[in-house]
Amino acid sequence: MHNVPLDNVPESVRGALVLVVDDESENRHILRLLLGREGYNVSEAGGGQEAIDAAMGEQPALILLDIDMPDLNGYEVCERLKHAPGTAAIPVIFLTAMAGAEDIVRGFRVGGADYITKPFQSAELLARVRTHVRLHQLQQVLPVCSYCGKIRNDDASWEPVETYIRQKTGADLSHGVCPDCYEDIRSQFARRREDT
Prior knowledge:
With 196 residues, this protein is an alpha/beta fold. The longest helix is centred in the middle third of the chain and has 17 residues, at 122-138. It has 7 helices and 7 strands, in the order βαβαβαβαβαββαα. The chain is elongated and about 80 Å long. It has 2 domains: 6-138, Rossmann fold; 151-195, no CATH class. Helix 2 runs parallel beside helix 3 (74-83).
């Protein structure tokens, strides 16, 4: 199993909570180890209703969900989560041995964000988890100061927009002037010339 060094894992996903739902304790254990090495916090549920309760209470950044479980199956769990306002936005990745086309289509139809079949490739699973966690984080409502433009980060402190975006995405920003501001500045200069 090839692990990405923790230094290469984006700051934004470190510490993100992933809920692993599988009725097989060995599967949960393997996923806990794999995700834990990548810096995720992991919680576990062994059944459908337990998963719903955990998702409602913990608000994970992502749910890895098996389909074939004894109480509620994964499709039912996903459907219920997607109809509840508090959990509707949490991405669900189905992780299952059910590999038929109709199974996959049904997974997306009930609200799944992705579908991975077992046995899975560790690198592929980690890449998909990382992508969906980052997308989920970027879709969150961000409090922005209307006076100075700073953003309140995950630690409830305020920081410049550029710093926040760099930490979340790894992207650097360049500065420019949008067409509306350009016209406003140009008209202000024109008025100043007329006044002198």
